Every structure is written in C-alpha cells, then in structure tokens.
Amino acid sequence: MNVKIGAKIKELRKRDDITQEQLAEFLGVTNQAISKWESENGYPDIEYIALIAKFFNVTIDYLFDYVLEQNRFKILVIDDDKQVKALLHKYLGDDYEVIITESKQTDLEYAIQNQPDLILLDIFESGICNYETLTALKTSEITRTIPIIIMTHQNNLSIKKEVFNLGISDFVAKPFDVAELKARIAIHLRIPYKWPYR
Question: Which CATH architecture has domain 5-64?
Fold first, then answer.
C-alpha cells in the first residue's frame, strides 16, 4: 500500500493556511520532523496520527487516503455558465467527484442513471426561470431524495419560496463565497467541515 500521509498533511496545512512551525508547536515536535514527513522521508509515530486528524478536523482514514476516487461523493453541476462550471470544478474537485455534462437532458439522464450524492443547480437560462429540470428531479422516485442546492443570481424572496416549496435543500446566491458553499455542501452530505482561517 502506498501511504502518502506526508502529502495529506501538507495539503491540509495549505488548506488551513497553517505553517510547519504552528503544526510542530501543537504536536510538540520539531519543525524538521514536519518537513521530513511532508517530503516523504519518514512517517509520524502512531501517537501523533489521531492528534493530526483532530487538529485538521478530518478522519484518520482521510490521512491515510483510503477513500478511492470512485468512492468519493459525486456532485452533479447543472449550470449553463461555462465559467461557473470551471470554477466549481476547480474549487470542489479536490474533495469531490464533480460531474459536468453537456446539456440539461444529459444532466437528467445522468442523475437518474447514476444518482449523484448532491446536485448544484441554476434554474435560470438566459435570465428566464425554468423549473422544468428541478420539477423533473423532484418528481422522479429515483432522484427526489438527492439534496439540491440552487445557485443563482436571482436572489429574491418569491423565487426562494417557490424553489423551497418544490423541495430543494438550500439556496446560494451568486456570486458565491467558496467557503460558504463548501460548508453548505458538507452540511447536506453530513460530513465535517472546518471553516478556513481568515
């Protein structure tokens, strides 16, 4: 088994904007020890594994990278804006399998056939509200329980009432804050999330 715990520690440090010195101080080890782990020239002693997981608010399994690509949570993005799709893939791709299809019809087919764990949906096309996709997802026995987060520039109360009445899980206004979006996704997937340091 090829364990890359050092790479995981480095990834988590960068995620949380933590220095090697800060992590070393928390663990009671030298800066050189952290550097050695991250360069894959050694591994932390077993006594430090749980402390490292606690510090970064992740599981021990995550540190050992047992979660295979095909077992990651799948998020289907349904949005007409190519730039938004690219941004979502960039910001979510490290943590989730982000699915981007070619058209609304393909999106529906994918959702029915593969049942993603969560859907990010913009129901506006060229400024016009289109509930067809949302209604189809929420009336299908196969997809109706999948959490759906609406993402849209149209942030008014009447639209919010309408989509919540159709059964969505959450509503995020564009332009979205990445940290907030990640937190909302984690809530609906029932996984821990540590808000980034500012």
Answer: Orthogonal Bundle (1.10)
